[in-house]
Amino acid sequence: MINYVTIPEFNKDFKSLLKRFKSLEKDFENMKKYTLETYYEKGQPTTAFVPIEGFCSENYTSNKVRKFSCMTLKGRGAASGIRVIFVWEESKRQVTFIEMYFKGDKENEDRERLSNFIQTIEEN
Q1: Measured between alpha carbons, how far is 80 from 5 in angstroms, rounded to an integer?
Q2: CA-CA distance, 55 to 33, in Å (whole number)?
Q3: DSSP string spanning 46-63?
């Protein structure tokens, strides 16, 4: 079983996007179930997310979900433009959600936020 954790900044991102994309809660649950759990629990390959270079080690991988289906954005399918940044820690079987954003609002992930979180992992 996978443990899901969020950081406060992610919760703020999520709440802000939820105002614009009403189906986001259900879409997010679907992404966890059909993307993350299918990959990490069942070992089925996926192209839905990719590692973020420079933010991975033997103990964790930082990833960007690029294929996120959002029902509010009809007709766009998995190319909704919503991105989810998360860190997978195999030893804890834990996914920590770091950031969620709409590509129309900003181009790339907040690398400083990701770096700060990784520092906390490495210190523990």
Answers
A1: 24
A2: 24
A3: -SSEEE-TTS--SS-EEE
Helices (H), 3-110: 8-20, 24-31, 37-40
Is residue 106 helix, strand or coil?
coil
| Cα three-residue angle 109-38-43, rounded to 5 degrees | 100
Measured distance CA(36)–CA(64) in Å, rounded: 12
Q: Average pLDDT over the chain, rounded to whole?
A: 93
Segment holding 86, helix H or strand E: strand 82-89
Q: What is the pTM of this model?
A: 0.94
What confidence score (pLDDT) does residue 28 get? 97
Q: Please tell me the distance from the alpha carbon of residue 92 to that of residue 112, in angstroms, as a whole number.
A: 24
- Helices and strands (DSSP H and E) totals, the chain: 4, 5
Task: Write down all domains in the chain, each with its CATH number in brackets.
Answer: 3-123 (3.30.2310.20)
Amino acid of residue 20: R
pLDDT at 77 over 80: no
